[in-house]
Amino acid sequence: MNDVTRVTYLSGAYQVTGFLARSDLGKARGKLPGLVYCRGGIGRVGMVRTEWMQAFASRGLVVMAPAYRGNEGGEGRDEFGGGDVEDTSAAVRYLREMPEVDPERVSVMGFSRGAVNAFQTAIEEPGVHRLVLWGGVSDLAATYDERMDLRKMLRRVIGGTPSRRPESYQKRSAAYRAAELPCPILIVHGTADVQVDVTHAYRMMEALERAEKSYEAHLYDGIGHHPPEPIWSAVVDRWIEWLLET
């Protein structure tokens, strides 16, 4: 079993919290690829899943998961893809400095809301190896329209509605910034996802095609936001295999 430890690291002016899972395969294989796993949700909703980290590490990755500022005792306030993107970028740099990690093969995976942080990190942090958007939000204004239960939170953390703050919603939306993405991209989504509709995946694919960016997509017919076992393991095996191709 790969142990998960809590770490505190500097992100801008804040001391923030994250979690780290080291692979047992490091001594046998030398330097390993790194993965920053960007959790979904906000606050206590969608917290870091340490059992996921263990599963990713068991497949040959050194994994770090930011809790995002303001969570798990960290300083600051989660802005849902605002200043907290630095927490993710700093996690990439943290992994690169670890002796068992290959600094040229640190990738980022964003699950659900985590896609908002993950894609911005791929843009802002030079040299991100690969980007996985799993069940990911690609258009935050669409999420505002689709999820009445999230509207109050989005207005609070972003400072208004999409009509009042369109630039803030677009900045956090990968479908608006596809042309800026510099690394290989994989989209993973279930067609029966009711938390992040599969139209987010289609919208992202269309944006990447307009930007003439190459990408891959793993779409799972009839699967929801959280695939049951053994489908979950098969989904993870497939996207990690893609991560490890080069």
Give structural notes:
The protein has 246 residues and is of the alpha/beta class. The protein has one domain (4-243): Alpha/Beta hydrolase fold, catalytic domain (Rossmann fold), CATH 3.40.50.1820. Helix content is 33%, strand content 22%. It is built from nine helices and eight strands. It has helices spanning 26-29, 50-58, 85-96, 114-124, 140-146, 151-158, 166-171, 199-210, 231-243, and strands at residues 4-11, 14-21, 32-38, 62-66, 101-111, 131-134, 185-190, 215-220. An eight-stranded mixed β-sheet has the order 1-2-4-3-5-6-7-8, sandwiched between helices. α2 links the parallel β3 (32-38) and β4 (62-66).
- Could you say how many structural domains there are in total? 1
Any low-confidence stretches, pLDDT <50, length ≥5? Answer: none
Major sheet: arrangement of strands: 1-2-4-3-5-6-7-8
Shape: globular
